[in-house]
Design goal:
Blueprint lengths: L7 E2 L5 E2 H18 L4 H16 L10 H23 L19 H19 L3 H11 L5 H8 L3 H19 L3
Antiparallel strand pairs: 1-2
Helix pairs in contact: 1-2, 1-3, 2-3, 4-7, 5-7, 6-7
């Protein structure tokens, strides 16, 4: 590295890294694109090549900087393929590719949801008031069992029993059709 913080590459330290980047960035992007990378991923790959070049200890030992750049690019391709294989990226679907139905629910869905809510209201009303209140405070307001126990002046075990009975009642009655 020179005093002006310019990285020089090659046996004779003749070519600054910035010049190498300006000269070879587009060819590196094409290199990655030919291997199936998207435009953004290809640019990221080219940037990674130069980042790896900056990390080298001894730039002077590089005899042919252009060839070395493409050797590093080939290594980047291999490393990314290995990493993507572990993450199984080929099995992921891009959010951009998803076709999502309109935000408005269908009239049938609205009717079904209203009927389900009415059914839930009826089933909740069948419970003793205290049990229903404990269930709602826990599930809707996020109170812990210990907070509920302190609020009602009972043990945590008593709250757990009330919750088990409430949930069992919901499963039993909501499961009926």
């Amino acid at each position: 590295m020179d005093g002006d913080r310019t990285h020089r590459i090659g046996k004779n330290h003749t070519q600054p890294l910035a010049g190498l980047a300006a000269q070879h960035f587009a060819p590196l992007v094409r290199f990655f694109r030919r291997r199936g990378y998207t435009a953004d991923a290809a640019e990221d790959g080219a940037q990674e090549v130069f980042a790896r070049m900056l990390g080298l200890e001894d730039h002077a030992r590089i005899e042919n900087p252009e060839a070395y750049l493409f050797r590093v690019a080939s290594t980047v391709v291999t490393d990314r393929a290995r990493r993507d294989g572990v993450r199984q990226l080929s099995r992921h679907q891009s959010v951009d590719d998803l076709s999502i139905a309109g935000e408005e629910p269908s009239p049938e869905r609205v009717l079904s949801d209203r009927q389900q809510l009415e059914r839930l209201r009826v089933v909740l009303d069948e419970m003793p008031a205290r049990r229903r209140e404990i269930l709602m405070l826990s599930r809707m307001d996020g109170l812990s069992y210990s907070q509920l126990a302190a609020r009602y002046g009972v043990t945590v075990s008593a709250i757990e029993k009330q919750m088990m009975k409430a949930i069992a009642h919901l499963h039993r009655r909501m499961g009926e059709r």
